């Protein structure tokens, strides 16, 4: 009676050893042939037979079992109609909303403000201006606006003038929606430096970058109807 469980345990152990051997083989081959890739954080089998995910930070590659071939691209599950690479990256780049340093943002409240959204934006970002104008159509939301000056030398100056304005929300809306430049102002701008450090840590490389209450991170200027959908999804989380 103990034979079947013993055989199953032995099979599981063999599979584990095989998986470890394949991971070691991939690591060894890639380290020798492409040392500039850097340290591999994780290797795991994908749902496609013989294909392995190679993760370096939040960058995803795919390899055969020996590391002889490396693919940089997207893995699509045609049956489920899902972009598995996108799903994986979304999970890796998710930001726990409770970990956001909200003291380094200013808030824009519309309607009852019950729904939550954080946005990292550069005042010199044309896509951000388009996004902000479209965002006027989204109601009942609190937007935590993180100034994120990364695009050009005077991004820091404009961000400082907005952050140091008596009414930050008004200064931001005036510039992004109505093209009215903020008046020169000075104050403690260490919050902006912390925003840059936070963005570096979480690899926020473009603006706008949106973070929803369920941790979903969305890069780019998505239209108001997509913001509404994701806010609804986050509320159901």
Keyword list:
40% helix; alpha+beta; 19% strand; 237 residues; 2 domains; Glutaredoxin; Nuclear Transport Factor 2, Chain: A; 7 helices; 4-stranded antiparallel sheet; single chain; 5-stranded mixed sheet; 11 strands
Q: How do the helices and strands follow one another from N- to C-terminus?
A: HEEEEEEHEEHEHHHEEH
Provide the domain count.
Answer: 2
Mean pLDDT: 91
CATH topology of the largest domain: Glutaredoxin
N- and C-termini, Cα separation: 46 Å
Structural class determined from secondary elements: alpha+beta
Number of strands: 11
Just give the CATH class of the largest domain: Alpha Beta
Q: What is the CATH architecture descriptor of the largest domain? A: 3-Layer(aba) Sandwich
Low-pLDDT stretches: none
Shape: elongated
Word description of this protein:
This protein has 237 residues and is of the alpha+beta class. It folds into 2 domains: 3-93, Roll (Nuclear Transport Factor 2, Chain: A); 97-235, Glutaredoxin (3-Layer(aba) Sandwich). It has helices at residues 3-33, 84-93, 126-135, 155-163, 168-178, 190-201, 224-235; strands spanning 42-45, 52-56, 59-63, 70-71, 76-77, 82-83, 106-110, 115-121, 141-147, 209-212, 217-219. It is elongated, with a radius of gyration of 23 Å. The mean pLDDT is 91.
């Amino acid at each position: 009676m103990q034979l079947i469980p013993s055989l199953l345990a032995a099979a599981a152990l063999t599979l584990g050893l095989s998986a470890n051997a394949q991971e070691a083989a991939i690591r060894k081959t890639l380290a020798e042939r492409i040392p500039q890739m850097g340290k591999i954080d994780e290797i795991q089998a994908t749902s496609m037979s013989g294909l392995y995910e190679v993760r370096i930070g939040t960058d995803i590659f795919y390899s055969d079992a020996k590391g002889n071939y490396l693919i940089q691209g997207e893995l699509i599950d045609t049956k489920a109609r899902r972009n598995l690479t996108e799903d994986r990256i979304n999970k890796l780049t998710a930001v726990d909303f409770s970990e956001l340093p909200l003291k380094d943002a200013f808030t824009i409240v519309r309607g009852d403000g019950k729904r939550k959204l954080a946005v990292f934006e550069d005042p010199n970002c044309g896509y951000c201006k388009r996004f902000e104008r479209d965002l006027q159509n989204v109601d009942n939301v609190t937007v935590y606006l993180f100034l994120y000056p990364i695009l050009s030398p005077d991004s820091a100056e404009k961000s400082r003038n907005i952050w140091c304005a008596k009414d930050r929300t008004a200064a931001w809306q005036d510039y992004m929606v109505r093209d009215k430049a903020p008046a020169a102002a000075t104050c403690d701008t260490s919050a902006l430096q912390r925003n840059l450090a936070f963005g570096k840590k979480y690899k926020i490389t473009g603006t706008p970058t949106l973070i929803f209450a369920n941790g979903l991170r969305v890069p780019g200027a998505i239209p108001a109807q997509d913001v509404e959908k994701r806010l609804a999804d986050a509320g159901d989380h």
